[in-house]
Amino acid sequence: MTNVLPPYRKIIHIDMDAFYASVEQRDDPRLSGKPLVVGGLPEGRGGVVATASYEARLYGIRSAMPSKQALQLCPQVLFVKPRFDVYKAVSVQIREIFSRYTDLVEPLSLDEAYLDVTHDKPGIGSALEIARQIKQAIRDELHLTASAGVSVNKFVAKIASDLDKPDGLKFIGPSTIPAFMEQLPIEKFHGIGKVTAGKMRKLGVFNGADLKKLGEDELTGNFGKAGKFYYQIVRGIDDRPVQPFRETKSLAAEDTFAHDLTLQEEMVKELEKLSMTVHRRLIQKNLQCRTITLKIKYSNFKLITRSRSYPAPLAGTEAIQTAVIQLLAETIQEGQRVRLLGISLSNFGNAPDQLKMF
């Protein structure tokens, strides 16, 4: 018996496969089948992997990784600079395909979106068939592949789209959601990061079945407000609607550390990694920001934030790193123990095509 109550929505999550790299391999056959990184060159400082081809991922290369590290993992990897004007144009073509089936499209980035096809335009009625047709249209018209997850809500659809990549199609129906969620390792739950997963394992939680044994009060006691979220998602409950015109107010990334940081050098290293993450999201949203906020939580759980706004946009990973490290230097005192650091970007405007990425 399912805990997801009817009437059911029909939700599709579409995620393009290694989008930037696939576009580059499509447009230059010499790159086809080769380990490829789209991003900053490994020379100098600040080069970051925006996307790695699946051939490069076999060597452990991942998005937001420093380009120098990618080169160490795979000496024969090829680097190409991103062409955001091309990626944006292809993204428009992808969304045009979506619009043939529904106007309820919530883009998450250039290469990822939710679709609500509960009432689809052509009157097909089957979300699974619509997902097949969208994938085929993307293949036939754009010569690219996409993976799709189909379910009754956004959370399950997003997990489903990642299960059979690349070129995957996974349907998780309402009757199968409870069993699916119970066997799912907690690391696969969207929204549960490494630190939270580690804490869960200490509580004896290794998969959805273990998580389901914990009551809501116990989960909120251990994880705060997120505990209610975990209680619901393990039961397949997600009432969030697809929002076609959602406006991004801020972009953020943070990390809670297994051990308190006491050295400023350690904190700087962590902030550099977080800067890569938020800047990659900034690029995906095609935005530029003028305000940056540093978040610090100390070992005694005291939380502070420090913000600074700039007359011109912060262009590039290095600019974000410089700004947040300056905020850190002005805030942190010797001997203070830090358990969490975070970066938030806001005060957005649309980015020009030539926005500097690296």
From TrEMBL:
<dbReference type="InterPro" id="IPR043128">
    <property type="entry name" value="Rev_trsase/Diguanyl_cyclase"/>
</dbReference>
<dbReference type="GO" id="GO:0003887">
    <property type="term" value="F:DNA-directed DNA polymerase activity"/>
</dbReference>
<feature type="active site">
    <location>
        <position position="112"/>
    </location>
</feature>
<keyword id="KW-0235">DNA replication</keyword>
<keyword id="KW-0239">DNA-directed DNA polymerase</keyword>
<comment type="similarity">
    <text>Belongs to the DNA polymerase type-Y family.</text>
</comment>
<dbReference type="InterPro" id="IPR036775">
    <property type="entry name" value="DNA_pol_Y-fam_lit_finger_sf"/>
</dbReference>
<protein>
    <recommendedName>
        <fullName>DNA polymerase IV</fullName>
        <ecNumber>2.7.7.7</ecNumber>
    </recommendedName>
</protein>
<dbReference type="InterPro" id="IPR001126">
    <property type="entry name" value="UmuC"/>
</dbReference>
<keyword id="KW-0234">DNA repair</keyword>
<dbReference type="Pfam" id="PF11798">
    <property type="entry name" value="IMS_HHH"/>
</dbReference>
<keyword id="KW-0548">Nucleotidyltransferase</keyword>
<dbReference type="InterPro" id="IPR022880">
    <property type="entry name" value="DNApol_IV"/>
</dbReference>
<comment type="function">
    <text>Poorly processive, error-prone DNA polymerase involved in untargeted mutagenesis. Copies undamaged DNA at stalled replication forks, which arise in vivo from mismatched or misaligned primer ends. These misaligned primers can be extended by PolIV. Exhibits no 3'-5' exonuclease (proofreading) activity. May be involved in translesional synthesis, in conjunction with the beta clamp from PolIII.</text>
</comment>
<dbReference type="GO" id="GO:0006281">
    <property type="term" value="P:DNA repair"/>
</dbReference>
<dbReference type="InterPro" id="IPR050116">
    <property type="entry name" value="DNA_polymerase-Y"/>
</dbReference>
<feature type="domain" description="UmuC">
    <location>
        <begin position="11"/>
        <end position="193"/>
    </location>
</feature>
<dbReference type="GO" id="GO:0003684">
    <property type="term" value="F:damaged DNA binding"/>
</dbReference>
<keyword id="KW-0808">Transferase</keyword>
<dbReference type="GO" id="GO:0000287">
    <property type="term" value="F:magnesium ion binding"/>
</dbReference>
<dbReference type="InterPro" id="IPR024728">
    <property type="entry name" value="PolY_HhH_motif"/>
</dbReference>
<keyword id="KW-0227">DNA damage</keyword>
<dbReference type="GO" id="GO:0006261">
    <property type="term" value="P:DNA-templated DNA replication"/>
</dbReference>
<keyword id="KW-0460">Magnesium</keyword>
<feature type="binding site">
    <location>
        <position position="111"/>
    </location>
    <ligand>
        <name>Mg(2+)</name>
    </ligand>
</feature>
<dbReference type="Pfam" id="PF00817">
    <property type="entry name" value="IMS"/>
</dbReference>
<dbReference type="GO" id="GO:0042276">
    <property type="term" value="P:error-prone translesion synthesis"/>
</dbReference>
<dbReference type="Pfam" id="PF11799">
    <property type="entry name" value="IMS_C"/>
</dbReference>
<feature type="site" description="Substrate discrimination">
    <location>
        <position position="20"/>
    </location>
</feature>
<dbReference type="GO" id="GO:0009432">
    <property type="term" value="P:SOS response"/>
</dbReference>
<keyword id="KW-0238">DNA-binding</keyword>
<dbReference type="InterPro" id="IPR017961">
    <property type="entry name" value="DNA_pol_Y-fam_little_finger"/>
</dbReference>
<dbReference type="GO" id="GO:0005829">
    <property type="term" value="C:cytosol"/>
</dbReference>
<keyword id="KW-0515">Mutator protein</keyword>
<keyword id="KW-0963">Cytoplasm</keyword>
<comment type="subunit">
    <text>Monomer.</text>
</comment>
<feature type="binding site">
    <location>
        <position position="15"/>
    </location>
    <ligand>
        <name>Mg(2+)</name>
    </ligand>
</feature>
<dbReference type="InterPro" id="IPR043502">
    <property type="entry name" value="DNA/RNA_pol_sf"/>
</dbReference>
<keyword id="KW-0479">Metal-binding</keyword>
